[in-house]
Amino acid sequence: MAAPIRIGTCSWADESLTRYFYPPAVKGAEERLRYYADRFDTVEANSTYYRLPDEEMVRRWHERTPEDFVMHVKAFGVMTRHPVKLEQLPPDLREGAPVDERGRIDRPPREFRAEVFRRFHEALEPLRQNKKLGGILMQLPPYVVFKPASLEYLEWAQERLGGDEMLVEFRHASWLDEENRLETLAFLERNHMSYVIVDAPRMQARNVSPTVVATTTPTAYVRYHGRNAETWNKRVRSAAERFDYLYSEDELGEWVAPLAELSGQADTVYAMFNNNGRSSTPQGDIAQAPVNAQMLRGLLERKGLPVTPAPASA
């Protein structure tokens, strides 16, 4: 039996959504999440990449979403070895934290990272307890390349997640090039880590992971970053500029067959849109991610694929 395909966006609070997706009457964090959850049944929480979540905030996420809602949570930058400024840490972790000349956390010891993982894990208990927690997105930075030390770190990190599903996204081509692809996927499968498929600019660059359609666990997970090659490596002020791209119907149509294939292999398929800019249309400015998410839903429904139904108020 084909697995259901669940479609959502990689945030519900990006500026493009708050300005162009929500009606003017929908204001504040609570109203926006409820409005979003009336139209989609899954989302990524990405604020947790910038700050550690706290349990009270996560409890509010649970209270504002329906029973069958699934929320994936992006790992805090320290957990994925990204540069994190000292002020992004909780105040009690800042004292004695190793920093570089730019005030960023610099090669902290494992004990420090373990404490960050512990707090992250504990904060998600309201979602976990109410069966709304999807996976933990471990998006590795482009300077983390395929090598034994990187594999060992993923194993160590998975232990710190305490049984939560790890979604692993690579940002360096070495993981999925012809030399290492089979070994990478075998490693993920052996360790029950879910591989994240990406749709990204079609360009030859080491910091662009090729699109490889595969599964390593019963979860199939696709993230759509847009195909803006011009901004991918440009120094920009925000992620919205880097992922500024509106997919056409033809481009999303390329994904109908792969998603059908994944639906036949997995227990659940997630299609998540991370193109978080805005586009101007004759009808006015639009938020790219939710528009493309709804566009993909329509394409899959017309092909008779098992897309989870949009909530009644959509």
What does this structure look like?
- The chain has helices at 15-20, 28-37, 55-63, 91-94, 110-123, 125-129, 148-160, 181-190, 229-232, 239-242, 249-253, 256-265, 288-302, and strands spanning 5-9, 42-45, 70-74, 133-139, 165-169, 194-199, 219-224, 268-273, 278-281, 284-287.
- By secondary structure, the chain is an alpha/beta fold.
What is the H/E string?
EHHEHEHHHEHEHEEHHHHEEEH
* Uncertain residue ranges: none
What would you call the shape?
A: globular
| Total number of beta strands | 10
The Rg value, from CA coordinates, equals 19 Å
Approximate helicity band: 25-40%
Largest sheet: 8 strands, parallel
Distance between the termini: 27 Å
Short account of what is shown:
With 314 residues, the chain is an alpha/beta fold. It is built from 13 helices and ten strands.
Identify the notable features of this structure and list them briefly:
globular
Question: What's the topology here?
Answer:
Elements: E1 5-9, H1 15-20, H2 28-37, E2 42-45, H3 55-63, E3 70-74, H4 91-94, H5 110-123, H6 125-129, E4 133-139, H7 148-160, E5 165-169, H8 181-190, E6 194-199, E7 219-224, H9 229-232, H10 239-242, H11 249-253, H12 256-265, E8 268-273, E9 278-281, E10 284-287, H13 288-302
